[in-house]
Amino acid sequence: MKRKIIGIIPVRFFSKRLPGKALATIHGHSMIRHVYTRAKKAKALDRLIVATDDKRIFNAVKGFGGEVRLTSPRHLSGTDRVAEAASKENLKSCDIVVNIQGDEPLLKAKMIDELVSPFKDRNVVMSTLIHKAPMEEVKDENIVKVVFDNNHNAIYFSRSPIPLRRGVWKHLGFYAYTYKFLKKFTGLPQGKLEKIERLEQLRALEYGYNIKVVETRFDTVGVDTMADLYKVRRIMSNE
Fold first, then answer.
1. Nearest residue to 134 (alpha-carbon basis) of 100, 159, 170
2. Are strands 212-215 and 126-132 parallel, antiparallel or unpaired?
3. Which of 25, 128, 161, 164 has its CA 20 to 30 Å from the CA of residue 60?
4. Residue 156, domain CATH
């Protein structure tokens, strides 16, 4: 039986470096609309929902016909927001939840299809995407790097270059989980390494769970600053 797959886009208004970025205009449309429209094209998704803490974003999504839920403003991470939205949908434990970052307007629908592909194996509880890192990004602490084993299970994530120079893979912040594991993951205390690196996915590794990494040929530009926003506008102009 095909498992139902729901995509959730967590979005908060007051991001630290660029407040209100979800509503920033890119070629006539808000960033959240670009993300939603592209994610909606994924063949794997049965449903797509925006989860936000802000009425302005809520109304914007409603305005372009998207499905949206209001969630608590107290969440510390996007994953916590995804978990709350998923719980409101009364999903069964066998279902898969996809966490789609709301500040990735260059995402390709194919990336979501790739992300959920490991769940053909019923033992997989969590997956994420990786892309070969260009050399200019290897030393950038804002770019998360990952190493993985021969079975494509993540060994470690770091803001430092790992391995040191060659063959570096960067982590793209998209996740998929079984709903059962998502509930378990968000109930776990923060891990020591998670706090040091400021990377929540390390919590899964610290508690002994595997994260399946999926190589994708597509790269993205996460929008955290005005410089990122200008870069995305230039790229979209070329597209």
1. 170
2. parallel
3. 128
4. 3.90.550.10
What are the start-end ranges of the H helices in the chain? 31-40, 55-63, 78-88, 109-116, 179-187, 192-197, 202-206, 226-238
Residue count of the chain: 239
The mean per-residue pLDDT over the stretch 28-53 comes to 96
Per-residue pLDDT tens digits for 131-173: 998 888 888 888 999 999 999 999 999 999 998 777 899 999 9
| pLDDT range class, residue 90, cuts 50, 70, 90 | low
* Contact yes or no for 196/113 (Cβ under 8 A): no
φ and ψ of 18, to 5 deg:
-150, 75
Q: What interhelical angle do 179-187 and 78-88 show, nearest 10?
A: 130
Task: Give the total number of structural domains in the chain.
Answer: 1
